[in-house]
Amino acid sequence: MLDRLDRPTLRPLLGACLALVLAGCPSVESIEPDPAQAGDPVVVTGTSFGESQGASQVLYDGAPLAVTSWSDTQIGATLPDPKADGTYAVQVQVAGQLSNPLTHSIVTQSWEVAVPDGAVAYHAGTTCPAGWQPLTEAQGRFLVGRTDGTQMGVTVGAPLAQGEDRTHSHGFSTSVDVGATGVAGLSGCCTDVGAAGSRAVSGATAAAQAGPPRIAQIACERVAPVPPPSIDDHAFPNGSVVLFHKEGCPDGFQLVSEANGRFLLPTPIGGTVGEVVGTPLASGEDRGHSHTFSSSIEVPQQSLAAASGSNNRAPKGNKPFSGVTASSAAGVPYLQLLACRAIDRPDPPADEPITGDPLPSKTFSFFDLAACPAGWTRSGLHAGRFVAGLLPPSGGGVPYETRGGAPLGPGEDRQHTHTFSGSVSVPNDEVVLLSGCCNDKFGANGSFGFSGTSSPAGLGMPYLSLLGCEKD
């Protein structure tokens, strides 16, 4: 049977079929926003669209849409205008292969919203949605709120590398007093007796991983079209706390004084929304901290025959010492952005669907509310973990990767300690000996080791606890 087929005709068909098998059939997962008005921009999300459009198309009610952007997983397009209200099938056609159909609605009367220019939010995946761009300064950094627009955009510290658990250490210095016996030797020469007096103690602690507990997610900045569209309101629900890469809060927002100089922490499970922990950072501050420490050296006995007198020799025994380490920053990198709270946003009319430029599905945002608003769900994965900006794929960024230990508990200021060790040198003091035995007050000379663990201390990450929610 195969011999009777037209081989020249069969070969290109087999080639096209093989190409589709290797590339994978196109699949449409969502069209947003839905519903929308005729002429509005939409984003089609899915898989196996191909890296460039070529001859591929997005079909809306069977007719091709005007395409504004194209990637393997996301297509930007514009709805037809005019187009009557209704629900229509949407498919992507790649190399003659049609995707699964999804339905999408066009409405005339709706509540138009838009995300303000400069708004910063966290999103799923490794790329920003259409209309958003990666905030490169946030990659490998945490975000800190400010209320002075002139302090917006300041960065502190080097970004975290992929998989890095940053460490730090502290220098320390103090002294140990080995004391004196008040015993003088009279004849003979010479034995290994330690000299009396104060001896220097110095060194550096071992490096410690001090967290903080974190989750990685891509930070994106909204880039609004110019001129901006005519809208009924912004897209954030009342109670949203939004960080802006701008010098002033947009209409419908006010500054959040509690966030000034603080990291934003998704409220821990069982925690209190609005709780503040720690003293706010000054603008650009790389906060340091220190630890107390204590240890001792043990000076062994050196016996000899001697008469009492005025010469001072080191006595045997345990010699304690203590002190405070030098201050050192934990190396927590951050970016300062303007902190604004959404207020006075009217509820859309019940009979008007929301259209325009709503927040994309899976957007993560902070809320100064007891519960997530309608259409949002609390993220247990974020609770008690600071959000760090995801590194780009070239830097190995893994979305939703968690590091830095267990999430913080309610009101917790995570503590850490450092181990330390070293030695103290007690020099030789020549003693003129008597015959006989034994005076057991003397201590030997030599180098005597010590070790210990510092007191605990926090990282110096003041924070504001806010409910962390993802858009459905």
Quick overview of this protein structure:
The chain is mostly beta strands. The chain contains one helix and 41 strands.
Q: What's the multimeric state?
A: single chain
Note the gap between the termini.
54 Å
Cα-atom radius of gyration: 34 Å
The low-confidence runs, each spanning 5 or more residues with pLDDT under 50, are 1-10, 12-22, 182-190, 306-311
The number of E-state strands comes to 41
What is the tally of helical segments? 1
Shape: elongated
Largest sheet: 15 strands, mixed
Strand content: 35-45%
Structural class: mainly beta
Task: Map the helices and strands.
Blueprint: H1 7-23, E1 27-32, E2 41-47, E3 57-60, E4 63-64, E5 66-70, E6 74-78, E7 86-94, E8 97-98, E9 102-106, E10 111-114, E11 119-123, E12 132-134, E13 142-146, E14 155-156, E15 167-168, E16 171-177, E17 183-184, E18 198-204, E19 208-209, E20 214-222, E21 233-234, E22 240-244, E23 253-255, E24 263-266, E25 276-277, E26 288-289, E27 292-299, E28 307-308, E29 317-324, E30 328-329, E31 334-342, E32 354-356, E33 364-367, E34 376-378, E35 386-389, E36 402-403, E37 415-416, E38 419-426, E39 446-453, E40 457-458, E41 463-471
Parallel strand pairs: 10-21, 10-32, 13-31, 20-35, 24-41
Antiparallel strand pairs: 1-2, 2-6, 3-4, 3-7, 5-6, 7-8, 7-9, 11-20, 11-22, 12-20, 14-31, 15-19, 16-18, 17-28, 20-36, 22-31, 22-33, 23-31, 25-41, 26-30, 27-29, 33-41, 34-41, 37-40, 38-39
